[in-house]
């Protein structure tokens, strides 16, 4: 599965370029959207409304019971660790957390001596569902590698909710993840933030209210995939970004003007520019795949030229070289603990990337880009702590837990709802068998919005996707 | 020039000492004292001493007399183990995976048969990943070719400094055969054809052995492989050289065992995602397996049964298990160092701690014919020794000292040089004008 998205990106080289995006027909809408005002019904499907939500989340929390975890070590990701603490989950929210909590009479009470509690982990970089398992051609839906700018595609339209990798990352304590398109294109398309829950549809997994992400890519992948038609160089890449933003800015102005005065026929919709215009309006967060320090600095300048923000660089194996700039610009670094070397732009990967970025005051995020690594974000953070120690940078557990919880929540724009164990936040909670930074520790129970969706101790109730039925041997009390 | 690089005080003294001596370090006598010693071949020793002289271990125990001239290394509160062995790497054969000019792991043999390919002859002892692996406690690796049906020969390589000859401990240690379920080429379109091609090769090797003279005269039918490939297959057919066969699906593992029995081969199963499903058969056939503990994903129809308890279940059935990386995080190259985490995760999923440590030390040494010299701490062994800050399988433990053949390895790696340069920003590019603006 290693670097699947990258490998598959190469396959598409030489594919026929796609034609211009189609203008949608006025009948295009399914009628399920709630976006346009009533007066716009005559234009149904034809309006480029900011923040439109044509594929709205249909997520509903699973059934939950008031639950108290007590006699546990609580790492809140919002302050000091609470030894021998307790936490109350009620109505899908964190109702109380502290040394003790009042347990309602009907609460499930779990005594967790020796165990730890953390927020559900969050992965900013996943291809679950778009590069599903098994890795069949028929399930390869992560790279629309037909044009360097595919701002018109949305990753959610590729997500297969029956990907067996979803229950596996849940078993690793991941409750929220961002599924991104691959990195073949300069502009890869919209990413989507999902809750890791069983559902018949991707809409049933969509994190309500989460902003969209836009996947962009630097460096070797786009120039390799498009070398025959361009971009074939890094300068071609940057020219490609700038051309795209020029078109998007013109589109945004044309539409904002029409939306303000509603005179005449509306301009023609263009799905690519619609997404890019939303970035310029600040409604979509940019997630830019970029390995090298010098390229990150160029992307910062492009963002300043066109007046948008990069929310997070992804992979950023050279983030430690420009960590001061990332801190100053307020850009999160979604990075691995120790990957590198597999291509030139990854050659300078170092195991100290996480602690060095952290020490410079930038927002460090452990990301995976990998269905296996996504199950062990806590272990990756611990590696960063270890290398920090070698470097003389002390990373406390309170700080390291933020790399896999509230920092990624910020990068996804959902940190007011998840990422810490604070009263009022969503009850996305993991009970660990021990210290989450020990290699011997496993997630024992995982709650999403207060609902217990994984219990390692309950072999009878184990989320198995449709694909697994009849194909994947049932685990016999194990961790399949 | 100010260096922000953190160097523990004891290391400074040591660095000075090694500079001053600069003589062949094999002349040294070193006593590592006070640590919890895991000899692997025997029970752990609290407050133990490992005595090294002339590159060899001369004594291990709680009551070891320390010669007056010995350099003492205080390992109080620390853990001492044999150097770790990673049994599945391409270390020194590939530097940058996506750059063909840096790859020497795969023979281009058009028919997929490269039995005579001695991959280690292209080894680069100056690969940046060799120091990166050894400073994290890996002292020996199997360097294996990749790609094709019969991929070539693997070597056992120490991660010290020097020439290829200095590093190669034993070669060949295995003939490497490609993935039974996954290999497809112009010559192989199906599992059955994979086996057919292997049988043809083995049959023709036999024919060649019997009628070498007529082959040399040009007086034999055409054989399916070149003379050099047939020669290379002879030790395999004689059962002298193990054949490492990549097989994941349970049926592929069974087929490999049957084929090995048919021809009298010594198979080692590599990968073995579904090995746990046929653990009893593997145990009965006394076939060792190289498996990982960090993958539970049904990533293909050959690995539908993939699970992290695999090593534990195999051990429970009595199978000989060595651990290799299988999470997909570049464990054959950049992260060869992470073999200890494979063992730690194996423990989390049911393997005993002792078995897990053995599976990355003595067991691979046995499988690759070097257990008389590496993989354990006992007198007479080469002094491949690691001093750890704590439990070697734990994520937050550091390898503090690494010895290969009694020589303490330098701490420098390319990664650490980069971190040193960028520890304080802006960086210092070493100009006379000092740090950058």
Topology (SSEs and partners):
The complex is a heterodimer of chains A (480) and B (437).
Chain A: H1 4-11, E1 67-74, E2 82-90, E3 93-98, E4 108-111, E5 116-119, E6 121-126, H2 165-171, E7 174-179, E8 187-195, E9 213-217, H3 220-225, H4 234-261, H5 271-280, E10 285-290, H6 293-306, E11 310-315, H7 323-329, E12 332-335, H8 353-359, E13 364-366, H9 377-391, H10 397-403, H11 406-411, E14 429-432, E15 443-448, E16 451-455
Parallel strand pairs in A: 1-4, 1-5, 6-7, 9-10, 10-11, 11-12, 12-13
Antiparallel strand pairs in A: 1-2, 2-3, 5-14, 7-8, 8-9, 14-15, 15-16
Chain B: H1 9-21, E1 29-37, E2 45-53, E3 56-61, E4 71-74, E5 79-82, E6 84-89, H2 129-134, E7 138-143, E8 150-158, H3 164-167, E9 168-177, H4 191-210, H5 212-217, H6 227-237, E10 243-247, H7 250-263, E11 267-271, H8 279-284, E12 289-291, H9 310-316, E13 321-323, H10 339-348, H11 353-358, H12 362-367, E14 385-388, E15 399-404, E16 407-408, H13 414-421
Parallel strand pairs in B: 1-4, 1-5, 6-7, 9-10, 10-11, 11-12, 12-13
Antiparallel strand pairs in B: 1-2, 2-3, 5-14, 7-8, 8-9, 14-15, 15-16
Helix pairs in contact in B: 4-6, 4-7
Describe this structure in words.
The complex is a heterodimer of chains A (about 475) and B (about 425). In chain A, a hairpin with a 7-residue loop joins β7 and β8. Chain A contains eleven helices and 16 strands. The model of chain A is unreliable at about 1-35 (pLDDT under 50). By secondary structure, chain A is α/β, with parallel strands linked by helices. Chain A has helices spanning about 5-10, 165-170, 220-225, 235-260, 270-280, 295-305, 325-330, 355-360, 375-390, 395-405, 405-410, and strands spanning about 65-75, 80-90, 95-100, 110, 115-120, 120-125, 175-180, 185-195, 215, 285-290, 310-315, 330-335, 365, 430, 445-450, 450-455. Chain A is globular, with a radius of gyration of 22 Å. In chain A, the strands form two sheets. In chain A, strands 1, 2, 3, 4, 5, 14, 15 and 16 form an eight-stranded mixed beta sheet that branches. Chain A has an eight-stranded mixed beta sheet with strand order 6-7-8-9-10-11-12-13. In chain A, α4 (about 235-260) packs parallel to α6. Chain B is α/β, with parallel strands linked by helices and about 425 residues long. Chain B contains 13 helices and 16 strands. In chain B, β6, α2 (about 130-135) and β7 form a beta-alpha-beta unit. In chain B, α4 (about 190-210) packs across α6 (about 225-235) and α4 packs parallel to α7. The longest helix of chain B is centred in the middle third of the chain and has 20 residues, at about 190-210. The two termini of chain B are about 15 Å apart. The relative contact order of chain B is 0.16. The chains are: A alpha/beta (about 475), B alpha/beta (about 425). At the A-B interface, α9 of A face α10 and α13 of B.
């Amino acid at each position: 599965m290693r670097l699947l998205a990258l490998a598959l990106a190469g396959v598409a080289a030489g594919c026929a370029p796609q034609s211009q995006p189609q203008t949608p027909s006025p009948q295009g809408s399914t009628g399920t959207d709630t976006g346009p005002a009533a007066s716009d019904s005559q234009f149904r499907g034809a309006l480029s409304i900011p923040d439109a939500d044509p594929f709205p989340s249909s997520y509903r929390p699973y059934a939950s019971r008031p639950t108290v975890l007590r006699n546990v070590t609580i790492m809140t990701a919002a302050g000091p660790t609470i030894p021998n603490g307790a936490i109350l989950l009620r109505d899908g929210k964190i109702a109380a957390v502290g040394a003790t909590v009042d347990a309602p009479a009907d609460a499930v009470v779990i005594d967790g001596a020796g165990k730890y509690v953390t927020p559900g982990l969050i992965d900013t970089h996943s291809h679950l569902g778009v590069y599903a398992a098994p890795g069949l051609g028929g399930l390869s839906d992560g790279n629309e590698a037909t044009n360097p700018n595919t701002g018109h595609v949305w990753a959610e339209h590729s997500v297969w909710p029956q990907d067996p990798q979803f229950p596996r990352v849940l078993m690793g304590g991941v409750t929220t993840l961002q599924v991104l398109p691959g990195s073949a294109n300069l502009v890869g398309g919209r990413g989507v933030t999902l809750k890791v829950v069983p559902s018949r549809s991707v809409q049933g997994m969509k994190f309500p209210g989460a902003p969209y992400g836009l996947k962009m890519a630097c460096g070797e992948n786009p120039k390799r995939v498009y070398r025959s038609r361009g971009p074939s160089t890094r300068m071609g890449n940057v020219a490609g970004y700038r051309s795209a933003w020029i078109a998007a800015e013109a589109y945004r102005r044309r539409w904002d003007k029409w939306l303000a005065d509603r005179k005449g026929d509306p301009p023609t919709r263009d799905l690519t520019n619609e997404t890019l215009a939303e970035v310029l309006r600040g409604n979509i967060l940019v997630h830019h795949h970029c390995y090298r320090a010098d390229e990150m600095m160029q992307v910062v300048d492009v963002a300043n030229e066109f007046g948008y923000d990069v929310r997070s660089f992804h992979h950023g194996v050279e983030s430690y070289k420009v960590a001061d700039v990332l801190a100053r610009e307020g850009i999160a670094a979604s990075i691995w603990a120790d990957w590198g070397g597999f291509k030139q732009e990854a050659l300078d990967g170092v195991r100290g990337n996480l602690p060095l970025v952290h020490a410079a005051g930038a927002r460090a995020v452990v990301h995976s880009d990998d269905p296996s690594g996504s199950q062990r974000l806590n272990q990756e953070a611990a590696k960063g702590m270890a290398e920090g120690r070698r470097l003389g940078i002390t990373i406390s557990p309170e700080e390291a837990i933020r790399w896999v919880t509230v920092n990624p929540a910020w990068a996804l724009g959902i940190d007011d709802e998840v990422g810490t164990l604070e009263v009022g936040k969503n009850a996305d909670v993991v009970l660990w068998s021990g210290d989450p930074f020990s290699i011997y520790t496993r997630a024992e129970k995982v709650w999403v919005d207060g609902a217990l969706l994984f219990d390692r101790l309950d072999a009878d109730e184990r989320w198995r996707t449709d694909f697994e039925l009849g194909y994947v041997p049932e685990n016999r009390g194990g961790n399949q | 020039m100010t260096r922000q690089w953190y160097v523990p005080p004891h290391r400074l003294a040591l660095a000075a000492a090694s500079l001053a001596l600069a003589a062949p370090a094999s002349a040294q006598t070193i006593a590592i004292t006070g640590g919890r010693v895991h000899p692997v071949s025997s029970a752990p020793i609290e407050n133990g001493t490992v005595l090294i002289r002339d590159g060899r271990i001369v004594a291990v125990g709680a009551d070891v007399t320390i010669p007056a001239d010995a350099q003492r290394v205080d390992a109080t509160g620390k853990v001492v183990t044999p150097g770790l062995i990673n049994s599945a790497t391409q270390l020194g054969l590939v530097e940058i995976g996506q750059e063909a000019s840096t790859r020497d792991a795969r023979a281009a043999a058009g028919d997929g048969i490269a039995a005579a390919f001695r991959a280690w002859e292209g080894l680069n002892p100056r690969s940046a990943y060799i120091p990166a692996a050894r400073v994290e406690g890996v002292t020996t690796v199997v360097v294996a070719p990749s790609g094709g049906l019969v991929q070539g020969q693997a070597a056992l390589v120490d991660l010290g400094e020097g020439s290829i000859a200095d590093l190669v401990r034993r070669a060949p240690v295995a003939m490497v055969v490609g993935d039974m379920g996954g290999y497809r080429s112009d010559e192989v379109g199906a599992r059955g054809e994979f086996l057919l091609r292997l049988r043809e090769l083995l049959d023709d090797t036999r024919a060649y052995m019997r009628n070498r003279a007529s082959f040399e005269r040009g007086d034999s039918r055409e054989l399916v492989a070149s003379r050099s490939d047939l020669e290379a297959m002879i030790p395999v057919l004689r059962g002298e050289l193990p054949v490492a066969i990549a097989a994941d699906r349970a049926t592929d593992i069974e087929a490999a065992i049957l084929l090995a029995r048919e021809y009298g081969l010594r198979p080692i199963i590599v990968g073995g995602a579904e090995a746990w499903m046929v653990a009893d058969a593997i145990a009965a056939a006394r076939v060792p397996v190289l498996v990982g503990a960090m993958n539970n994903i049904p990533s293909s129809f050959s690995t539908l049964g993939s699970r992290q308890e695999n090593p534990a279940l195999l051990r429970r059935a009595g199978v000989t298990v060595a651990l290799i990386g299988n999470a997909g995080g570049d464990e054959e190259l950049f992260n060869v160092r992470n073999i200890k985490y494979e063992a730690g995760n194996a423990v989390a999923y049911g393997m005993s701690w002792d078995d897990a440590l053995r599976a990355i030390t003595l067991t691979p040494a046995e499988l690759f014919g070097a257990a008389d010299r590496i993989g354990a701490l006992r007198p007479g062994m080469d002094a491949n020794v690691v001093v750890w800050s704590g439990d070697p399988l734990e994520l937050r433990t550091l390898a503090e000292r690494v010895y290969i053949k009694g020589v303490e390895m330098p701490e420098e790696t390319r990664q650490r040089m980069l971190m040193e340069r960028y520890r304080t920003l802006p960086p210092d590019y070493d100009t006379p004008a000092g740090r950058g603006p």
